[in-house]
Structure formats: C-alpha cells, structure tokens
Amino acid sequence: MGDENMSGKPIYIGLLGLGTVGRGVFRLLQANKSLIERKVGGPVDIKKILVRDLAKNRGLQVEPGLLTNDPEAVLNDPEIDIIVELIGGTGLAADYVLKALSRGKSVVTANKDMMAEYGKKLFAEAEAHNCGLFFEASVAGGIPIIKVLKQSLAGNRILQIMGIVNGTTNYMLTRMSKEGIDFATALRAAQEQGYAEADPTNDIEGYDAARKIAILASIAFNTRVSFQDVYVEGISNIAAEDITYARELGYTIKLLGIAKDTSQGIEVRVHPALLPVTHPLAAVNDAFNAVFVQGDAVGETMFYGRGAGEMPTASAVMADIMDAARNFRHHVPGMIGCTCYETRSIKSMAQVVNKNYLRLKVVDKPGVLAQIAQVFGDNNVSLATVIQKETVNKKAELVLVTHDVVEQSLRSALASLELLPVVEKICNVIRVEGEGNS
Ligand code: NAP
Ligand code: HSE
Known about the structure:
With 438 residues, this protein is of the alpha/beta class. The chain folds into three domains: 3-142 and 310-329, Rossmann fold (3-Layer(aba) Sandwich), CATH 3.40.50; 146-306, 2-Layer Sandwich (Dihydrodipicolinate Reductase, domain 2); 351-432, 2-Layer Sandwich (Alpha-Beta Plaits), CATH 3.30.70.260. The protein contains 14 helices and 17 strands.
C-alpha cells in the first residue's frame, strides 16, 4: 500500500469506559498502531474517553485532556466517527449507543447484556442512520464467532450450535473434574482467580451463557431469540459424585449453550450436560471457551479461545473498530445489519428429546429396581443403563441412563418416582448431549 493511502483525516474513536476491556483496547492500539493503520488505510486515534472517576490510577499513560466524565463531550463531538461502548450495564449504555447512532456514528460494543435486551431497537436505529453496529466481543470474548456466523458461514443453513461460552463455570467444572473438589470449593477457587464475581449468580446459574446463546441463535437462525426464550439451568446442583459417575460412563460434564434448528421450531437452552469424552468440546478445559457449529455445507467446525480478559476481548473489539473504520473510509454503511428476517417459533422444552443421566437415592431391598423400572416403562422411558453404586445404611445410590426420551415423558416419570416410598431422593437429572441425538 502506498503512503498516499495513509493520508487524510484520522478516524477518531470515542471510548466509553476505560476498565478491563477499555484498557486493553487502549494498549492494543498503542502496541499495534502501525499495523492497524496500514490495514485500515489511514490514521486511527482515540479522541476522547468517558470514565466515572477522572482521578483513578489506571496504570496507563493517558494524554491530559483525553479523559472526561461528561458523556456529551464524547457523544456530541462531530469529529468522532466511532463510539466504542465499554461501560457495561444495559439502560445507560443503550441510551449512549442510541444517541451515537442517531448522530451518524458507528458503534462497537462488547456488551452482551445490552445487545440481548435492546438489540432490536439498536439495529433499527443503526439502519435508520446508515451506521454500523458491531458486537463481536459480546459473545465468547476473543473468539471471532459472530463474524464466522454472519460472514464466513453465511451460505450455510446452520443446523446447530453447541458452545462452552462461560469461562467461570468451565473453570469450576474442570477443577471439580480433575481434583474431585466440590462445587463450593470450586466456586471459591474461581473467585480467587478473578473469574467469578463476588455475586456469581449470572455465571453459575447460566444467565451469562443464556444471553450469549440468544445472540448466537438469533444470528444462526435469522430470527430474534431473546434471553426470555432460553431455557436455563445452572451448575449449582452438580455434585462431585455426578462428575465421577459420568466419567465412569465415558462422559464429562460441561455447561453448554445449545441452539438447534428442528422441524418443530428452534431449541435454545443452557444447562449442564454429559458429553462423550471423545466430543471435541469435552477437551475444552479451564476458563477457555469453544463454539461448535454445524452447517449443512461446511459440516462440523469448532472455534476455540479465551472468552474473556483484557487483551483477548480487546482483540475482538479492535477487529470491529477496524471494520467500522474501513467502512467509514470507503463511505459505505458497510455493516451486515440485523439478519433476523424470519420469525421462527421456539420449541417447547417439553418436546425436546435427549438421553438423560439420573442419580437416585433409594431403599436397598428386593423389588425396588422392579418398581422403578415399572414407573419408567409406564411413562414410555426406556432405560439404557442401571448401575447400583454406594450402599450406606440400607440406602443405595442408583445411576441410570435413559435412551432418547421426550422431556415431557421423563418429567411424568420423575413426578411418579417422587411418589414412590422406596425412592428417597432424586439427586440429579442431567441431559446427555453430543451423541447425535435429535
Ligand atoms: P469494567 O472493568 O467495570 O470497566 C467499566 C468502565 O466503564 C470503567 O472505566 C468505568 O469508569 C466506566 N463506567 C462505568 N459506568 C460509567 C458511567 N456511568 N459513566 C462513565 N463511565 C462509566 O468493565 P469491563 O470488564 O471492561 O467490561 C466492559 C464491557 O465489556 C461489559 O459490557 C462487559 O460485559 C464486556 N465484556 C467484558 C469482558 C471482560 O473480560 N472483562 C469480556 C467480554 C465482554 P471508572 O474506571 O472511572 O470507574
Ligand atoms: N463472566 C463471563 C465468563 C465473562 O465467565 O465467561 C464475561 O462474559
């Protein structure tokens, strides 16, 4: 590229937020400025940064005058072309993004909560003003999965997505699996490592993963899928015994975000699942994320990397900034806007078909297994495996694996089992995924 292409007005960025991700974006632009500018075809500079606390020590050399705590100083600066929203939260962030778009600025964000709640409104505003709205970092941090779905696999009908999209829970399940520690110890370890927040609800109850899979399902199936559409179960009920027994059966337990295109509608769910140890996602450990995508043309693909953290997330944000900057230089709106051109129904969870693992505590005496088998049979649930584990004080632990069963039938069987005097407790029920079931 000749130097004449590097001239012209710089593309000016307004950063909203200079926390973990904002700092990463600032550092990455400093470190790779010449590479970034050569690829964009002109200078790229940060013109203003919105923060709350002007006096905070950020461990960065920020030019005097760059920081402000007045949002209008950034959003209303006519020279700023791209607003990068990294303050987090929903209402205020959406308000700032709407203002930026209405003023003709393109927006880059890492904010899954805002995209999951206000995506429709934000896309409409972006389209009305011919601006770009980029959100690669909002799902799976450094893994470029949104661009893959929107561009690289655009010619495919996407059949299914299965993702480990929450690093905190994957770290916890990995520690539980490798060290046999219990849930509470694993949570403390995740908090000590800085993965889990003081209030870990969003991660461990699956809400963070649900917001991410809602975004991915919307893109994959060209229909709006919201957080409320996602069936969610977290990992707080997973015990060390479940992990041990799953391993003995040839499985590992992962928190999965699942989106499937079926003839009865779209399945979209987040829950722990037993995955065969041979499945590519089973090897994704610690705080890593991975997204497994099956398209009708490409077949099976998998994308792996760090789902959070300063520099991995900044990597995704910077790629979006560069897309927006290139579009700006070429005077094209240049976004692949909202692709939700269809309205698809969401399949009821009661209709979902899965194999299931069950752990029961039962009375240890003759005839108990027969009674339990009868309940399953009466409800059209076929059993593949029944194993009796520990027996303590005349109470036995039973581990059962069903064949594929409609969830509704399994729920009826569980309701009847709860009424059986010989069943002391249904300790856990975990779906089995990744064996080619529908
Ligand atoms: P963070 O460390 O808490 O930083 C937030 C920044 O925004 C801070 O600089 C803060 O200013 C500023 N801010 C917050 N509210 C503000 C307000 N009302 N007015 C002005 N400034 C305000 O957050 P983060 O971890 O960087 O996350 C940013 C976004 O990226 C979130 O949407 C998050 O979900 C997403 N994300 C984060 C990660 C990650 O690994 N951290 C990964 C993927 C996506 P002060 O510094 O002055 O307090
Ligand atoms: N809390 C998330 C995780 C990272 O543990 O993966 C931000 O989305």
